[in-house]
């Protein structure tokens, strides 16, 4: 895990004045740890950090980077991280059922007209004639863990197509990528900033869109510990407000493209500090630009989509016990839909 801390460089302007939408009270140098993945889909947090929105809200942020959703959920529950932005997983839901975690906002979403997550197949599978998702019957579909968002996406696609998939848990995203490129698995689904460069290399092929099977999918959510949600409202509201400002900048620059070419270029350079940072800028830029998906305005949460995900986990027996939306989600922080 990588740690990054912003210290002293930004003047604290006062959360209430800077962030009126969520009514955030001013905090003073409150240290928080934010879980993230090095994905374009996590850009709202990166923008809020780099442009001082967290600092303006009185938050001193330290990032912890993970390679899968479920370990992040465990970190939130254990107190090793304060806030996380990632997909809803079986691990997150189980921890919520135990009273350890709470979803408090929304982040990445599938939206009609905006390029979204792709269904990929290996070159070997493609050359063997698998050119549409329907032809994946009985094939190996890569996931990080059982009960991950990859599992959910694969299952929804399989149910719609009337096929069965053989799910292969590989624990980490890099391991899934390696298995797909080498033909050890046949298929996977992932965000476009990863899917498109892989397809461009010729090692894999895009054969479908997740949005065709899960319209208006709330891909990632903002979550925290149940204690933070209930008892640290000022801190939680401050985080969400700063996160929302970062999302607004990102959407304007790379999704709606209303901020102009200079702003778009500046945004790509900012995101490149975290995404494909090991690649030269000119190599990383296309993947970042082409991978820009909508991050919900105001950190709004699509509870209809979250409920569908919860119902699927329950129906598949991937979580134990009985859990309701009220246990999983605190809807008091943001607009819900």
TrEMBL record:
Gene Ontology biological process terms in this record: alkanesulfonate transmembrane transport
Main location: periplasm
GO CC annotation terms, alphabetical: periplasmic space
Cross-referenced InterPro entries: SsuA/THI5 (IPR015168), TAT_signal (IPR006311)
Keyword Iron annotated: no
Residue ranges annotated for the SsuA/THI5-like domain, each copy included: 40-249
Source taxon at top rank: Bacteria
Similarity-based family: Belongs to the bacterial solute-binding protein SsuA/TauA family.
Protein name, per record: NitT/TauT family transport system substrate-binding protein
Source species: Thalassovita taeanensis
């Amino acid at each position: 895990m990588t740690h990054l801390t912003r210290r002293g460089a930004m003047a604290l302007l006062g959360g209430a004045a800077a962030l009126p939408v969520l009514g955030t009270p001013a905090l003073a140098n409150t240290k928080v740890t934010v879980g993230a993945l090095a994905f374009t889909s996590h850009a709202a947090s990166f923008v809020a950090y780099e442009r001082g929105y967290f600092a303006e809200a009185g938050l001193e942020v330290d990032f912890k980077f993970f390679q899968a959703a479920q370990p992040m959920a465990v970190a939130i529950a254990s107190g090793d991280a304060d806030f996380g932005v990632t997909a809803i997983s079986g691990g997150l839901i189980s921890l919520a059922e135990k009273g350890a975690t709470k979803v408090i906002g929304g982040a990445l979403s599938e939206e009609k007209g905006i390029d979204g997550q792709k269904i990929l197949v290996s070159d070997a599978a493609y050359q063997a004639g698998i050119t549409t998702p329907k032809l994946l019957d009985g094939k190996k579909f890569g996931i990080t863990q059982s009960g991950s968002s990859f599992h959910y996406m694969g299952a929804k696609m399989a149910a719609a197509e009337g096929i069965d998939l053989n799910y292969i848990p590989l624990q980490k995203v890099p391991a899934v990528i390696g298995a797909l490129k080498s033909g050890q698995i046949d298929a996977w689904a992932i965000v476009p900033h990863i899917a498109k460069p892989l397809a461009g290399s010729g090692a894999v092929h895009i054969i479908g869109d997740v949005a065709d099977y899960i319209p208006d999918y709330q891909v990632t959510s903002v979550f925290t510990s149940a204690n933070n949600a209930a008892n640290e409202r000022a801190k939680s509201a401050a985080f969400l407000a700063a996160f929302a400002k970062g999302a607004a900048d990102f959407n304007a620059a790379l999704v709606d493209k209303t901020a102009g070419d200079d702003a778009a270029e500046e945004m790509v350079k900012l995101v490149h500090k975290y995404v494909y940072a090991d690649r030269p800028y000119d190599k990383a830029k296309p993947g970042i630009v082409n991978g820009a998906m909508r991050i919900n305005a105001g950190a709004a949460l699509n509870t209809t989509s979250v409920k569908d995900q919860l119902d699927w986990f329950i129906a598949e027996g991937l979580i134990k016990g009985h859990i309701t939306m009220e246990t999983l989600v605190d809807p008091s922080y943001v607009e819900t839909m």
